[in-house]
């Protein structure tokens, strides 16, 4: 993420965090604040795709969903847990490690309690972040929704999908082109394998809206990687 992009998205990121805190009557005034911790991670070195831009886009999708599907957010515990999971799901992101989701989940719970949320909110947020490893379908609707929102970029127009792939490749610079090809190919194939998952998206809402586009992007990516 370059300086210009950071300067553009940082105030939006901060605005969405203040809106979240205000909605639940939360004061984030301790030093260091949770907001400053989130910014430190998402604007850290090597963050090209999994940056504050990614989080802003997902939070704005939640805002849209609250207007279109308000019944999903009537339970304040569920509402808070879903949004906290979005804020924290990539807070730890080390491409050389395999426990990013677990570490992020632990932080989600810890900071939920620090902010004054109930243990129920913290536990759900932790569970929902864990689900974003996308290894299997989640049982709870909240986790399914968080996972689907996280994967929404798979259904973008092909040029935007390819640009996101380029940014993710930059996050894996320590790997050779062949290592990247093999890893990305396995990742794409896992989403398209009906024996591993019946669909890319877990909720009926996103399957109806985005499945066709995401599947087409992934199929094209897999075909291209196999041809190299």
What's the SSE blueprint?
Elements: H1 3-23, H2 34-42, H3 52-68, H4 76-88, H5 100-114, H6 119-130, H7 141-150, H8 158-171, H9 177-192, H10 204-227
Provide structural commentary.
- The protein has 228 residues and is mainly alpha-helical.
- It folds into two domains: 3-150, no CATH class; 154-227, no CATH class.
- The protein is 66% helix and 0% strand.
- The chain is built from ten helices and no strands.
- The protein has helices at 3-23, 34-42, 52-68, 76-88, 100-114, 119-130, 141-150, 158-171, 177-192, 204-227.
- α1 (3-23) runs parallel beside α3, α4 (76-88) packs parallel to α7 (141-150) and α5 (100-114) packs antiparallel against α6.
- The longest helix is centred in the last third of the chain and has 24 residues, at 204-227.
- 33% of the residues are buried.
- The mean pLDDT is 96.
Tell how many strands the DSSP assignment holds. Answer: 0
Low-confidence stretches: none
Query: Termini distance?
Result: 28 Å
Sheet/helix structural class? mainly alpha
Number of helical regions: 10
Shape: globular
Strand portion? under 5%
Average pLDDT works out at 96
The domain tally reads: 2
Helical proportion, percent range? 55-70%
Q: Describe the sheet with the most strands.
A: none
Task: Please name the defining characteristics of this protein.
228 residues; mainly alpha; 2 domains; 10 helices; 66% helix; globular
Short description, anyone?
With 228 residues, the protein is mainly alpha-helical. The chain has helices at 3-23, 34-42, 52-68, 76-88, 100-114, 119-130, 141-150, 158-171, 177-192, 204-227. The protein starts with a helix and ends with a helix.
């Amino acid at each position: 993420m370059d300086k210009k992009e950071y300067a553009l998205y940082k105030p939006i990121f901060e605005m969405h965090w203040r809106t979240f805190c205000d909605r639940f009557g939360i004061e984030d005034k301790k030093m260091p604040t949770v907001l400053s911790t989130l910014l430190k991670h998402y604007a850290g070195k090597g963050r090209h795709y999994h940056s504050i831009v990614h989080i802003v886009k997902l939070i704005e999708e939640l805002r849209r969903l609250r207007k279109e599907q308000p019944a999903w957010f009537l339970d304040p515990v569920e509402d808070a847990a879903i949004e906290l999971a979005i804020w924290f799901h990539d807070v730890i992101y080390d491409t050389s490690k395999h426990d990013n989701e677990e570490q992020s989940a632990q932080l989600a719970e810890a900071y939920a309690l620090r902010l004054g949320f109930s243990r129920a909110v913290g536990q759900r947020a932790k569970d929902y972040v864990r689900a974003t490893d996308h290894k299997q379908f989640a049982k709870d609707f909240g986790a399914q929704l968080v996972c689907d929102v996280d994967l929404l970029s798979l259904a973008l127009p092909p040029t935007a999908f390819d640009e996101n792939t380029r940014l993710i490749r930059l996050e894996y610079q320590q790997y050779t082109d062949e290592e990247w090809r093999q890893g990305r190919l396995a990742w794409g194939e896992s989403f398209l394998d009906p024996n591993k998952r019946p669909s890319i998206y877990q909720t009926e809402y996103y399957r109806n809206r985005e499945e066709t586009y995401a599947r087409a992007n992934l199929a094209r990516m897999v075909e291209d990687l196999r041809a190299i």
